[in-house]
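Hi R.,

As promised on Friday, here is the backbone we talked about, encoded as structure tokens. Could you run it through your design pipeline when you get a chance and send me back a sequence?
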């Protein structure tokens, strides 16, 4: 039985946290009797999640002590784990601006969330709030683990690792897209039923539950080892859990005859580099130099589907209203009995309780687990979790061509972070000039000036 511990969750007012991480933590028998401090600067959202937490605490007999705070400094003292899911918002509105602004300057970035010029703006807005949390932790709970969900993952983890003394791990569910690919491609071989209607791996409310059906069938049957950087990792091995057989040759054979219109960018990159990229076309396109040519318009050829900003903004509000009805007792909480914390619960239970857990993917500083990527940068590999902490699995060197793609993104991330910490326009320009989507110095200067002016209220460090 795990000893009671204190968990502080920053950004707790989001609907996704309330539905997933919160309910998973409160269901845990191992964490019974722990302390849960909920933090969100949006008092209304915080109130909804706080009331829901108290309802779950009573109905599930969780035995937690729960508190709510509008500032993280009031909630960190004594914390052993800090879960951060912050986002400078409004998320969808700002993301749309990140995407559309570059088009004014003749550059079409195909997605604009974590890579490309949009990745710079997205990260830069989140740097100061994330660093403030880390520095507050240094004072209030210096030995605590920071579990980060904030994107762009590589850049925020790079920030915490290089500009604070806090231990941090970054968690993301993208590895499961790899399992969906494998389950679909090897469906007949593995006996997996693939529901009709899966058109790709893009974020959409129709495809998500269908993909989850494939993932849940594939996980017990297959072990995938992947490594690289977040949203840009590569499948190193595919093995049958029942026999230990290497399934990669069969996967290559089956994929060669699979629908060529399904994730075509992934297909071309797989054929060119020899390892299968995990994330699917919409994330993969963010780190490659071949998807933003204004003359050939490769985003049309690859049918890169944009995030539906309006839909997901409305869905966010709908989900919060749904949680409010649960908090008020007007709806059953039965749907929260089978939710997933995306790894946060596994980290907390096994560090606090000296467990022994293998996790498929997590982001940690590179201490040699991928020896041909720069030491100290944020890389994604499997990890082992026990009472001594979170330890990366050493996966060996990536093929040099793939490592070079990753190294470039890691340097772009470092320049982005240092620029935002220092308020350095020089490093910000260098960040954009090294980005694989940018091919013109004057265009990079124009985009940077426009970003810094448009987002001046979020980026005051550049205007001192």
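Update: got your reply. Pasting your designed sequence below so it's all in one thread:
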């Amino acid at each position: 039985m795990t000893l009671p511990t204190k968990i502080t969750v920053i950004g707790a007012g989001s609907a996704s946290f309330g539905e997933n991480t919160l309910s998973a933590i409160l269901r845990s028998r191992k964490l019974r009797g722990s302390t849960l401090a909920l933090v969100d600067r949006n008092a209304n959202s915080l109130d909804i999640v706080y009331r829901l937490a108290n309802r779950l605490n009573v109905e599930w007999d969780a035995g937690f002590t729960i508190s709510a705070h509008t500032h993280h400094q009031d909630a960190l003292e004594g914390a052993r784990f800090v879960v951060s899911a912050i986002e400078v918002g409004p998320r969808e509105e700002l993301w749309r601006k990140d995407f559309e602004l570059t088009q004014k300057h003749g550059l079409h970035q195909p997605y604009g969330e974590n890579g490309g010029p949009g990745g710079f703006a997205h990260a830069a807005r989140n740097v100061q709030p994330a660093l403030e949390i880390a520095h507050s932790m240094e004072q209030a709970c210096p030995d605590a683990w920071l579990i980060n969900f904030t994107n762009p993952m590589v850049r925020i983890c790079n920030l915490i690792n290089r500009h604070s003394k806090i231990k941090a791990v970054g968690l993301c569910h993208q590895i499961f897209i790899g399992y969906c690919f494998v389950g679909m491609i090897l469906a007949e071989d593995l006996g997996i039923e693939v529901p009709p209607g899966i058109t790709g791996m893009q974020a959409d409310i129709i495809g998500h539950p269908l993909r989850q059906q494939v993932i849940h069938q594939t996980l017990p049957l297959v072990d995938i080892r992947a490594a690289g950087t977040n949203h840009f990792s590569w499948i190193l091995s595919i093995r049958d859990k029942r026999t230990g057989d290497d399934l990669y040759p069969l996967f290559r054979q089956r994929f060669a005859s699979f629908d060529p219109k399904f994730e075509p960018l992934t297909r071309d990159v797989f054929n060119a580099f020899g390892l299968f990229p995990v994330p699917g076309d919409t994330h993969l396109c963010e780190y490659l130099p071949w998807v933003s040519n204004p003359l050939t318009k490769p985003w049309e050829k690859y049918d890169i589907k944009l995030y539906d900003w309006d839909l997901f903004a409305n869905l966010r509000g709908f989900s919060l209203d749904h949680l409010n009805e649960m908090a008020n007792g007007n709806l059953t909480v039965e749907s929260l009995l089978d939710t997933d914390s995306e790894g946060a619960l596994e980290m907390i239970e096994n560090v606090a309780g000296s467990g022994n857990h293998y996790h498929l993917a997590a982001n940690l500083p590179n201490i040699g687990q991928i020896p041909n990527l720069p030491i100290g940068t944020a890389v994604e590999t499997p990890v082992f979790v026990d009472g001594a902490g979170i330890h990366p699995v050493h996966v060996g060197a990536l093929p040099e061509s793939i490592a070079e793609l990753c190294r470039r993104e890691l340097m772009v991330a470092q320049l982005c972070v240092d620029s935002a910490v220092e308020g350095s326009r020089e490093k910000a320009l260098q960040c954009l000039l090294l980005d694989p989507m940018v091919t013109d110095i004057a265009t990079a200067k124009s985009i940077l000036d426009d970003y810094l002016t448009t987002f001046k209220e979020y980026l005051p460090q550049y205007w001192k």
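One thing I noticed while checking it: The chain has a mean pLDDT of 96.

Thanks again,
M.
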